[in-house]
Amino acid sequence: MLTDSHCHLASHRFSPTEIPDLLARARAAGVTRMISLATSLEDLPANLSIAENPAVHTCIGIHPCDVHHAPDDATTRLAGFTHDPRVCGIGETGLDYYHPAPDGWTEENFRERQRRFLHQHFELAAASALNVVIHTRDHEGDASFQDALAIYGGYHTSVRAVFHCFIGPWENARRVLDLGGLVSFGGVATFKTAHQVRETAAKCPAGSFMIETDSPYLAPEPHRGKRNEPSYISNTAERLAGLRGESLEQLAHHTTATASGFFRLRPQSV
Questions:
Q1: Which phi and psi (to 5°) does residue 58 adopt?
Q2: Fewer beta carbons under 10 A from the terminal one: N or C of the chain?
Q3: For the chain, how many structural domains are there in total?
Q4: For residue 211, how many other CB atoms are within 10 A of its CB?
């Protein structure tokens, strides 16, 4: 049993009519659970609808690239959904210093709004007894990671966070783990030039990381360049298992257990 801990099934790149076939392909590939993440108030209803399927849960949040569109009370509006049984976490939130500030915003004002929203997501998570999914991305360096980690440090005694699509060095992963958080590895770990990611994944103890697709983005080898989907997580899992000297079954077991604990999912009958 594999768990895709991070995908975007409500993305415009997936037609609503193809979701049943997409979920069937995932099941055929051994993927029994998927976490689909909202990135705005607008795509929240679609995520909740898809999560009517018992194999899917959803997280609710405002992506850092969408904070300029979101109203100031966005997290207050999200709070009304935290007790929905389909909801299993807060996110995708975080800091994105890769994309330029939108028209009418300075870089600093845009980043400050992202940081303010990240604080608000942590506050919502703490009040709701849910955990947080964090996005970070930079053009160069790791300023977004450093800033997000510092914010997480103020909440780590009451909330756990996963830094998704992690591509950083082991030292940065260790700092997340030292706070009680997790990292998650996706298709980038299969890319031929992604030596740092694989070195980090090899050092992470079982129970400290999850696996994901981030679909429809970042498809793993041999699908690189195509639209990603949850069934492709088996390619990433096989690559990581071989790298770590584990069987696919062993890696599937501990990453699924880690995802179930982090998202507080009920036991699943298969």
A1: -135, 150
A2: C
A3: 1
A4: 28
